[in-house]
UniProtKB/TrEMBL annotation:
GO terms of molecular function: oxidoreductase activity
Presence of the UniProt keyword Secreted in the record: no
Record key words, sorted: Oxidoreductase
Organism the protein comes from: Pelobium manganitolerans
Pyrroline-5-carboxylate reductase catalytic N-terminal domain span: 1-89
Name the record gives this protein: NADP oxidoreductase
InterPro entries to which the protein is assigned, alphabetical: NAD(P)-bd_dom_sf, P5C_Rdtase_cat_N, STEAP_metalloreductase
Lipid biosynthesis in keyword set: no
Length: 205
């Protein structure tokens, strides 16, 4: 997801500060981004704290279980910044979520980063969809949830740059539904070999 999001939003007017554990993969990703568009602004960062200190918007493209550790590293430098939660907190057997029914991965992240503006986005879009985010000739819908209006607008622009149709679904608690929606799509994929690339196209424009 980190690579897919970085590649897709490199088409926009963003300076990408990319942090990954595998330096060779990160270098290859940056080469690919620049080969596609030599004006793209992307660079590797050695440390997540430094990357988040420089960034205005932070996207955590890691498993839910890793967010606690990363949040503790970036808490101070993510103050007042937008932090995008893309995680689906699936259990190991993909038949449920590890979060309780009265919360979500996004709300748990907001508790860990109380002074940041956590926004849920990209959890309902499969990594493979980013190369062609189109269903039946129409942009796939991508749902967003959060409590800060300005941050929702900023993230909608990012989602739109990535090629999806941004739909603000509600406040951060709506993340519970969004995370369960993706659990359902994954379960349908497993049960019926449902088209994993279908994604969501609920609203017709
Ligand atoms: N795949 C999808 O289609 C999809 C769709 C929507 C949302 N999501 C969500 O997107 C997130 C990433 O999923 P993914 O499919 O991209 O997973 P992935 O391919 O396994 O990538 C996860 C990345 O997180 C890194 N990571 C893991 N633990 C870490 C830690 N403690 N500190 C720093 N980095 C850590 C991994 O680094 P290493 O490689 O070094 O382990 C890896 O680069 C998940 O929360 C998932 O629920 C995925």
């Amino acid at each position: 997801m980190g690579s897919a999001i970085a590649k897709s939003i490199s088409k926009g007017n963003y300076r990408l500060l990319l942090k990954g554990n595998n330096q060779a993969s990160l270098d290859a990703l940056i080469d690919e981004i620049k080969a596609n568009d030599n004006t793209a602004d992307a660079e590797a960062m050695a440390c997540s704290t430094e990357a988040c200190w420089e960034a205005d918007i932070i996207i955590l493209a890691v498993p839910f279980e890793a967010e606690k550790e990363i949040a503790s590293k970036i808490k101070e430098v993510a103050n007042q910044k937008i932090v995008i939660s893309i995680a689906n907190p699936l259990n190991k057997t993909y038949d449920g979520l590890v979060t309780a029914a009265n919360t979500s991965a996004a709300e748990e992240l907001q508790k860990l980063l109380p002074n940041s503006k956590v926004i849920k986005a990209f959890n309902t879009t499969f990594a493979a969809d980013f190369s062609t985010p189109v269903i039946d000739g129409k942009q796939a819908d991508a749902f967003i949830a959060g409590n800060d209006e300005e941050a929702l607008e900023t993230v909608s622009e990012i989602v739109s740059t990535a090629g999806f149709n941004p739909i603000v679904a509600g406040d951060l608690s709506v993340s519970r539904t969004l995370e369960n929606m993706q659990l359902l799509l994954i379960q349908l994929g497993i049960k019926y070999n449902y088209n994993w690339l279908a994604g969501w196209k609920i609203l017709h424009h």
